[in-house]
Fold:
Amino acid sequence: MGLILLIIVVLLLIGVLPNWGYSRDWGYGPTGGLGLVLLILVVLLIAGVLPLGF
Structure:
């Protein structure tokens, strides 16, 4: 479950980068927010709170 969440967040992080046409006007705000979510998710995976597999 944790690995699936990690993959989804990484894909979302790539999707909100400002070099894509639809997200140029957004700036780096969404990237910073999703980066924080990714950091929290990785810390929870390392701490063993979220299981890595099913």
